[in-house]
Amino acid sequence: MKTTRRKFLQFTGVAAGxxxxxxxxxxxxVAVTRDSSQQxxxxxxxxxxxxxxxxxxxCCEKNGFPAPETEPEIGHERVTSPEALTVVNAKLTxxxxxxxxxxxxxxxxxxxxxxxxxxxxxxxxxxxxVIWKEDKCMGCRYCMIACPYxxxxxxxxxxxxxxxKCVMCYDRLQEGKIPACAEACPQEAILxxxxxxxxxxxxxxxxxxxxxxxxxxxxxxEVGGTNMLYLASVPxxxxxxxxxxxxxxxxxxxxxxxxxxxxxxLLAPAFMLGLRQATKGKNDKD
Amino acid sequence: xxxxxxxxxxxxxxxQDLWTFLLSxxxxxxKMLTPFNIISAPIILLGLILIxxxxxxxxxxxxxxxxxxxxxxxxxxxxxxxxxxxxGAYLVTFMVYVLRMEKYHAIVRATVLNGFLAYVFYAGALxxxxxxxxxxxxxxxxxxxxxxxxxFLVAWHFLLYMMAQFIEFSPAVAEWLGLKKLRKVxxxxxxxxxxFGICLSxxxxxxxxxxxxxxxxxxxxxxxxxxxxxxxxxxxxFAGMSIVIIEGTISHRVFHHQISAEHHAKxxxxxxxxxxxxxxxxxxxxxxxxxxxVHGMHWDELLTPMGYLYLLEMIGFVVLPFVIFVMGAKNRNxxxxxxxAVITAVGIIFNRLNVSVIAFKWxxxxxxxxxxxxxxxxLAVVFGEIWAFRWVVNRMPVFMxxxxxxxxxxxxxxxxxxxGVVAGVNSEAAALQPVKIKK
Lengths: 286, 439
Description:
The complex is a heterodimer. By secondary structure, chain A is of the alpha+beta class. Chain A has one domain: Alpha-Beta Plaits, CATH 3.30.70. Chain A has helices at 2-22, 24-28, 54-63, 112-116, 142-146, 170-174, 180-184, 195-208, 251-278, and strands at residues 40-45, 87-91, 99-103, 122-124, 130-132, 153-154, 163-164, 190-194, 228-231. In chain A, the strands form four sheets. Chain A has a three-stranded mixed beta sheet with strand order 8-1-9. A two-stranded antiparallel ribbon of chain A has the order 2-3. Chain A is elongated, with a radius of gyration of 24 Å. The termini of chain A are close together. Chain B is an all-alpha fold. Helices cover 67% and strands 0% of the residues of chain B. Chain B has helices at residues 3-10, 18-26, 35-57, 59-62, 73-85, 88-98, 108-123, 126-129, 150-177, 180-210, 228-254, 261-296, 305-331, 334-358, 372-393, 404-413. The longest helix of chain B is centred in the middle third of the chain and has 36 residues, at 261-296. Chain B is globular. Residues 1-8 and 420-439 of chain B have low confidence and may be disordered. The interface between A and B is large, with 71 and 66 residues.
């Protein structure tokens, strides 16, 4: 009996220690709601985009990639890759003219990739952009599984592969500049600013031009809100957006499971040692 | 064959030099040209060459993984299925050390060894899949703790559980090497390691399922449910049992000469008991799957191609093995039990691949199919594990009887540490029961 009690205390101690080590605040910090209105964000007004690819070229130049070889074309879906972090696609919609739409990382408020990453290589900065840290990443590609927009791309051809994604030109932001794509856009179709201000602008545009826009700002609430916002003249499904993702932030999907871990580590050993005690025969010593 | 004679000869004798003994143990034992060796040796060799290729040419050149499908069979089979197959270790240790079901004591060491090696090889295969494996230490050390990640939890649990399993098996190593003092210490750690190991197992068996909770929009609604972690842990019960039955049946043929008469006689009882447990778990699992299906309201999906796969999984690999196990246990039919176990194991592969690979992005026009290199390396990992298992079994007291001094030692400390197979000829009270102290 003495041994059992000591073992029980040992296990409780280990479990409690493990819980303390993880730290509930760290573990579940992702779920804490915070004001994102002061974070950097971008608003892409697809009604203004003319598909000139100036943003793509600026992105490639800034990141040292070869210039894009293909052009937006109806019926041909262009996707981002490790050497093309943003692409423009042309979509045939209910309207008579084709609509152009730019794709890149959505910079979610509570990113799936960040909650997937076991080494904090994917990192949501306080300023808003979601960045990737080369020295931490072990290349497990769980971020690619988790991202609802399939944004992170992996350099499969390399033996020192990196995850590549749009980081909202985080280095330029720190120098006081704005993202290369927003700077390059001749149509002012990409606005860079604080998320709260951009939402105000987007709402005002919808209010002022109800015939031009549909009443939906993509990214305002999708997967808990993103720092990339979109305006469009047609429903977003027609532009190839996933509109079935819901408004639940992705970290919520695993939160229940993660909450149960410290509980299980604390209660299960006690329960099992109790069972072992209960099944003890008169010849068993411990 | 007299196993007692055998036992005293195979392990390191008192006073024998440790290094000379270890060197002599490195030599292969048994026949070299068996059908199994002839098939497995070239595959392991080819697998090793391909592993070198994978690290020199990169993942893109050797696998069919792409931007759409970042995880293939190295995750879906090697890790997710392999860990489910290793579940026997936590279940059997639970039955023996927590519930004290002494009947299963005889299979503890083989099951724990199999579990440990499965983790080492299958979870070890994870490093092949990592793009930047030299950073694998990051989640363990430094300020890189991604504590909001299920994968972080799984990584830590893999590491800790491998250590726990090694501690559980280590008395056999000490007995092999004739290290009495070490054996005494290691034996006293068993119960602690078992209890800790069961907690870790439950959490990462379910954790492997919880990984996929982050892909709600990408996994087919018939497989995606918030209950994936619960379904994974329940299915790990019959996954583990089926492998213990398959491994036990094969081991009884292959290592026939190492196993005592008593153990042979008891073997059928053990297999029947395990099949009953597997059948119960299959029933619970089936019931839960139905609840999830009703709750999810995806009836309309059942009559699509993915729905047919779902029905095949449910009827062919859950209901059918359940019926076979029940019949096999009733008639004590070895062949029925084995076929039930094989169907269950295939069903687990099917289910885990469905969640992680097949139903993942089922809508994609070009779905991932593994490359031949991925398949050969996977086979090499499986064969490698079997080779390692055989190597250990031929040297350490897994099926063979523990050396005589162990019994005196256990009497001294009153521990009930498993012995590979408890004595054949010279023991009556000790046979098939752990040594118990009466003072």
